[in-house]
Amino acid sequence: MDQINIEHTPPSAAEYLALRKSAGLSAMSQEGAEIGLPNSLFAVCLREENEIVGMGRVIGDGGCFFQVVDIAVRPDQQGRGYGKLIMSEIMNYLREHVPARGLVSLLADVPADRLYAQFGFAYTSPKSEGMWWRQGE
């Protein structure tokens, strides 16, 4: 890995929106990013010379429910182990802060599900299925 700096702070809204777009994640609104990012329970950003190359966040109520979101690495930086580094930082946070019986969830896109499985995440089906609702555009 090149000289990567690890920061435990959320990115700016502009960085967040640009990174999600470049990584092929769904678009979010500027308004949503400005509200949501400061409310993260935990965030990790990977930077190379002040340029964001990857990020991930944990959101939730801080006691019973936690969700891993926004795992993203710039396409030109993929394949260098940065996704694993982001998840390692997140797992360190989770192991230290999730109380007994706390539930950590995530929505896994294929093939990223293989990364999450390395950290102990398992499919919930057939016992349960993930569902979602999204506010209209």
TrEMBL record:
<protein>
    <submittedName>
        <fullName>GNAT family acetyltransferase</fullName>
    </submittedName>
</protein>
<keyword id="KW-0808">Transferase</keyword>
<feature type="domain" description="N-acetyltransferase">
    <location>
        <begin position="1"/>
        <end position="137"/>
    </location>
</feature>
<dbReference type="InterPro" id="IPR053144">
    <property type="entry name" value="Acetyltransferase_Butenolide"/>
</dbReference>
<dbReference type="GO" id="GO:0016747">
    <property type="term" value="F:acyltransferase activity, transferring groups other than amino-acyl groups"/>
</dbReference>
<dbReference type="InterPro" id="IPR016181">
    <property type="entry name" value="Acyl_CoA_acyltransferase"/>
</dbReference>
<dbReference type="Pfam" id="PF00583">
    <property type="entry name" value="Acetyltransf_1"/>
</dbReference>
<dbReference type="InterPro" id="IPR000182">
    <property type="entry name" value="GNAT_dom"/>
</dbReference>
